[in-house]
Amino acid sequence: EAYQNYCLEKIEKLFSNNDKIAAYVMESGAQIAGGAVIFPKGFQQKISQICKKFDVLLVLDEIATGFGRLGSLVEYQAQKSVPDIVAYGKMLTGGYITMAATLTSKKIYDAFLGSFKEMKHLFHGHTFTGNPLAASVANENLEIYEKSKLIEHIKKTSKIFEKRAHEFADLELVGDVRFKGMLMGIELVKDKEKKIPLSSKKSINKIAFEEARKNRIYLRTLGNIVMLVPPLAISSNELNFLIDSTIKTIKGIAKKISN
Description:
It contains eight helices and eleven strands. It is α+β, with helices and mostly antiparallel strands. It has two domains: 2-147, Type I PLP-dependent aspartate aminotransferase-like (Major domain) (Aspartate Aminotransferase, domain 2); 150-258, Aspartate Aminotransferase, domain 1 (Alpha-Beta Complex). Strands 7, 8, 9, 10 and 11 form a five-stranded antiparallel beta sheet that branches. 29% of the residues are buried.
């Protein structure tokens, strides 16, 4: 909480001392690329309020965190934040075909609305904009979300992460475990007390990948963070298998590093 307040104070101070900041851009709900850093409750909402206070646009990236990854269909609503622009992709079509979407507030939309001679138009586009095949896949995907009650399913299976997180925390190499919805980041360290990141002459990612294959799973790391980003529709049995195999893999990494 102290670090959260420190960050919020820094952001507010930065905004108050600079009237040329156009926008604040952040992933919604968590920093996935930052190693599954889950935002504290209320953090994103406060960011949203600070942006409104200083008339700074809030731009949210829900490409990886939206559509159920963190347990809600629309993550910014779960975070009680009010963005001006939101980006979506990937899970919009279930990964079957490329498509992205950008949502904006009416204020942003109207800023680009006008006749050609007003030169307000957003002069940007590409060959596959509005691709009807991709749009059809996205619509079907959204129907599957609703029919299968996928969000409710995620809320149930995510409890397995919550219940079993301590099993990772007890491992020799693990300094921190962060999770929400169908996302978990397991931080590998040399020293549990000092939280010194694990390092090796050989790529940590390569070691993790090789050890994981022995346990019948595919794993990737972001630096020293083992990332678990399973399919949203994963069953309870499959998720437990993934967790069991990941624990074996981390133990295998420990042996490899020590040798």
